[in-house]
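Let us practice reading a record.
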Amino acid sequence: MLRLADSIPVVSYARISADTKRDEHGVRDQHKVNRETAARHGWIVVHEFTDNDKSAAKADVVRDDFEAMLKALRAGKLDDGTSIRGVVVVADDRLTRRPGDYERFVEAFTYNDGFVFADAKQTKNLYSEDVESMGLFGAVISKMEVRKMQRRVRRAHRRRAEEGIPVGGHRPFGWQADRVSLDPVEALLLQQAARDFIAGRSLRSIVNEWSSKGVRTPRGGEWQTRVLKGTLSNPRLCGWRKLGDELVRDENGDPVVGKWQAILTPDEWVSVQAIFATRKGRSVSKDGTAGEVLPPDYREHRYLLTGILRCGRPTENGGICNTKLRVAQRPELGHHVYLCPARSAGGCGGLSRRGDLVDLYVSEMVLAKLEEAQMRKRVPSAEWPRQAELEEAQAALDEHIAAFMAKPKRISTELFYRLLPDLERDLAELRAEKNKYEGAAKVERARSEIDVDDLRKRWYLPEEEGGLPLSRKRMYVREALVAVIVHPSGRTGRAPFNPDLLEPIGREDV
């Protein structure tokens, strides 16, 4: 009878590419088989290396335990000093699927003499050149099979998309487990979130509200702004489907409608995407002119005019400081203060202004602009000025394809594939521009229907009493103003508030 002390110490390696149930049953079963294999050969498993839910076919996937096993094989021992003399796996494809990984495994395995290797069927002498070559050949074949499988999956994915069939994966927020029927609670939350976002509310404000109500993602996580943005960017919300960066379209160029219930109308979804693309302010350079486009402002600010107020203190070269003013708390004064940061922080440190009075003055300025716009009440046109170009581009692509498909061909294969990318790119760019234009026009029409009287009432109310969220007020300010230059009073000490020292730079002035 073999004694435990006489058993050869080996490690068990288990891997599975997709643990869909998240219960690790696949790798546990592999380790069980490996222990039985080791016992059958008179070996004993002293450690288990596990890479659960990790592909061995993708170069960008790091298998931590595989790398740790290679290190242990070279050393001939585990980190705790336990000796190891071999490896047991269920099958070679659990170990490697890429020739380079197989070569690294054999190199580490044969670094020391006398190691043993077995799969569920047999033992193998990896010190033999013939066995090593067969293993390497198997890894090459495995890689080819993986590539064929990936191509089949991509083709099947494309076919399902073109037929409007829902894809697999985790349940999307807003739908039930069948991925077709709506979840009444989640769908209503998403619908309201999209409409609030169109109305000017920030993503952060929506996420904060959902967190306070205990709303969780389908996998039980907490909502974040980037996750909500990704959810609202998914055309599934309005029944459409996207592959890569392009909407899936039928032969007429229209988006394919999926076989699931929609949460938003196509117009609402396009409006959300238009805001993502166009809701960007512009910076103001040191000389006071508008500069580059700023990234979208999704962060929930605590003060109305942070990032909008600029220091107007003159500089030696005849310009102005133009640094963004920051906020300092002044509890002893009962209000906040906007001030230019110190020289060490990039400002001049020579200007400050009472925050509550500046907020009040700018608020009244913005409300006055909204009232003026309501009196004029100009509804923007939804007709895109480049519609004719889009139709010509579509006709050119259709004619190009018809010439290639004709019998006999009226265009060579080489010329067809040389011209096709440019035609498709031009058409995609025009479609994207049209979507943005029509979405922006829809948003602008919604803006023209604002009840300014109600807006004025809600502007100064606390949010818990029905007042506007700060993010929405900042949106109205940003739509009206690029920046507000705060000029110095020319006096030392505290000077009375003088609104004439505030120079607004309206968007119509840029």
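A brief commentary: Residues 413-448 form the longest helix (36 residues).
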